[in-house]
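Q: What structure does this chain adopt?
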Amino acid sequence: MTVRVFSNVFFVPFTGRPDASSVCDGDGAGGLMATLPRPAHSAGAKVPAGLIPAEPSAFWDLSVGRTHIEIDHKALNAPCVGGTVPGPVLRWRQGDTVEVNVTNTLRHEDTSIHWHGIRLPSDMDGVPGLSFTGIKPGETFTYRFRLHQSGTYWYHSHSGMQEAQGLYGAVVIDPLHPDPHVCERDYVILLSEWTDVSPMDMISNLKMQDDYYVFRQRTAASFLKDARAAGGAGAALRDRLRWSRMRMAATDISDVTGIIYTYLLNGHAPDGNWNGLFRPGERVRLRFINGSSMTFFDIRIPGLEMLVVQADGNDVEPVPVDEFRIGVAETYDVIVQPKEDRAYTIFAQSEDRTGFARGTLAPRAGMAGPVPPMDPRPVRTMVDMGMGTMQPGESMQDMPMPGSSGTPAGGQSDHAMQGMDMAGMNMAGMEGHGMGSMPHRMPPLEVDDPGPPPINVENQNVAVMPVDRLGSPGDGWSRMAAVC
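A:
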């Protein structure tokens, strides 16, 4: 990874942020500072990406500007905080009233900072046009709010397309009471995307063609493989025709893919090999944040079980997993305990399998663990679209009913009614009900299922063909995540 920086913009908390030598001792994360591959940063940035400041501070002074950054041969004059991508990790304490001065040094554009997931007054939320007017060039805006929660969160711009180009960073809030999951090591793992393509160009291309960046389409070359999987050429052809009638691609998993994206872990491309140090036997807390614009990641650390202890800043009953999926803007805290004196790879592959981000947990700086191959690319099915086996253009009248041996609902209704012997039936009491009332000797039908939920603000859609997917391993997963 080549990184070039031409900026002296940096961040300084008002009080008490320790210098590099006091963050950790030389054998711990502090020793990492001299040897860790560094992301794009300015001369003023002192804490490498992924490290959390040693002490929380309630007062911060942040500066937003543009910095020339090149990652994976993709150069961009990126809007960012403190001249780094990602921006500095902010450490706060629950119960404190924090004060963050944000100065806009951009020449011709407004900026803003939105505190994602933080409960605060609307005028401090940082969304221009909704909660405030934004921060004009050359101006400083002071965010001031009391912290009512703890956990892992993040911040990002809500102006223009600045977030998609690098204006984001992590927030760690210490709990008011002792943390039940104290670990010897504590790192932020911020996943994101990097490209030198303008976000507005991407939107324009997607409006023109929804699968513009999906280069891994099904072709004639893949038809034989699809036919074998479908049980025959006819079934495979019918499936492709269904997708064609919907004008959709079964391989359109992500709108924008690794064709133009480089996936980053703490600002490092895959070959940048971000390192987090540990001693064998230590418990290591990894605070995963998905700061990407549109990419879902499937995360695993081969050889290590992860214990999920927090989701979106909320403590949860610990759940051991081998792999988990993280959506856009989500955060998950996991604890691992590497016991061997070797390197372990943090592997985060995109949901569509067009790329991955990776870093390394290692007992010594500069080590690299083996990088596993990506799983097979996912291909959507009609079940994924909530349509079961229904074909486009079909209605419920055309669908087979249970126990009808494939007879469509409409056909079964007509023939069944014609063949019924009505002579011995007591028709009394059926007035006004059509055929709705059954003979009194029949017990009332008991239904435990209350039916579909009502359509309201919180629930605006009900699947036409609801299917229980709780046992599904998910799109693109070659195995089930081991969730106990």
